[in-house]
Amino acid sequence: MRWISLFLVAFCTSAALRAQQNPIDSLKNELAKQGLPDTSRALTLMRLAIQYETVDTSLSARYYRDALHFSAGKKFDYITALVFQNQSYLYRAGGDYERAGLCFDSALLFLAHADHPNRELLTAKIYGANSSIERYKGKYKTAIEYSMNAVRLYNKLNKPDLELNQLIDISSIYKEMYEFVKEEEYARKALAIARKLNTATAYFRGYYGVALALIMQNRYKEAEAYIDSSGKYYSPADNESSLTGYHLVAGLAYMNLDKLEQANEHFRKTAELAEKNKNIFGRIQANLQLARVLTLQKKYDQAEQILLATEKEIAQTTGKVHLEILLDYQSRLYEARGDYKKALTYYKEYKEITDSASSEQNKQYASRLEVEYETAKKEAQINLQQAAIKQKNTLNYILIGSAGALLIISLLSYRNYRNKQKLQQQRISELEKEKQLLATQALLKGQEDERSRLARDLHDGLGGLLSGVKLQLGAMKGNLVMTEDNARVFNIALNKLDESISEMRRVAHNMMPEALLNLGLSQALQDYCDGLSESQQFVINCQLYGLDRRMNPSSEVVVYRIVQELLNNAVKHAGATTILAQVMRQDSRLTITVEDNGKGFDKEQVDAMKTAGLRNIQSRVHYLRGQMDIQSAPGRGTSVHIECTIEKDV
Fold first, then answer.
1. Are residues 505 and 524 in the same domain?
2. Alpha carbon separation from 334 to 265, 297, 329, 598, 649 (Å, rounded)
3. Which pLDDT tens digit goes with each residue over 289-341?
């Protein structure tokens, strides 16, 4: 039965296929319209990203970033969540399930604050999609938890059709876990929903799901009744996956019940549907089962002809997925014909593959059992410790009661003494940590105060002095008679003086930007990114979320300096064309991400050098009680991710 499971897992998994036309030009024209409403602009950017997924993934990623930046900036929480949800498909197509999962987490974060009538419906769909990701990663229990969350929401929203689909997905997950009884349980729950819906499509899928669960348990006679019930609601208008799967499962049941003509008919319909829809996987599977039926009917030449043709097709397409079934059926064919030499050759090849697959399956099963065993072991240890503590407490109560008042006083005094020692030791540790924190705060505050003083001195002192010199030179120019060459040199000197004044003001602004003090961290970072990328060969994509509420000034300055230092490093050393600067805050949790597509570097060499800039950033991260992770490689760009905890709002 294992090969049946292998096929049905791959064939019956729900697939969401989005129709692809080519409206890219019309969407770009829509985007270029003057006066386009903000919501329409955000949705158009998202649709462009979706259309580019199968054309140019880099452009798709760019439009997704633009859509996120625009919708989040406009506080369109629901649309932002929708963009994150669709962006996950881009990562899933590339096999990057970790990033796809992060997209879903971000979508749920924005949905929590969204005010939209479809908020809970989108949340349920994201739970279902997240379940699929965990399922692909082999984390079946987590996948089931996500699916159950989706089922509860669909039930609450009275969406029985979506609840039915999710229950069928849960049944399929249990099938992949080889827990066929649980598979049947949820298939029957789906059938109960189908009876409430009372539609042909629902009945077709519900009965077919129960039949599949029964076949996995070798209960073919019971499965036949459900196949017959499902067949009553069969409609050619149903999707190709459901129809092909139905005929295949029906054929398997009838073949194992020795109803070979009926099995032959269903397998031929499977092949016809697969051929019509250019489904190579389904066609190969149907031909393999046809060959098996022909073998059972003693039509050996026809069976051999089909198997030889299928063998060539398998070698060119699906590989190991069908090779196990092919070798098994070839061995059975030649055994039935009396060609035991060939039968033994194919059987040995078949056993080699199945033993390898069984070994891998056993390893996974053993790993899962080990985790469950360790969990149960820890729970038993906890229960044992709790019982020992309870027994010890009971004994202590008896001793205390019999020892008398003097012993009670002595024990209480000793306990108080020990508690005081512990409290004092804890207090000492807290004071040491506070001392270290105060020292760091004092150092950073001193640095920022000195920066502020130097900025004021440069701006008010040296800036005023240079401006005065400029005015005096300008006045002198009108009173002096100079040759043309001298006048040109004089004008060049005035221009250089203007440049010096501008450079001095820029330096003073970077040392302590006014926007940070007056308008807050969000505006200061946006101004800095805009100023840094102005008229440059690179683009800085600045994404700021949750920074509307002000933090305490010290934290804002530290965060600003961290982002400033990371961006300066990217601009000076990376040679990048695109830089992402993202700062996101949720309650007391703050994350900082700076990525570039530059030349990258060898992380091990940089760790060994411990440059001053890196140490400076690290000290500020420690000040915020955070952690920093740097990912880079030569030619692959650089990504710096920081997570930290910030103080309460001012």
1. no
2. 24, 14, 9, 61, 79
3. 898 899 898 999 998 898 888 888 888 775 666 788 888 888 898 898 888 88
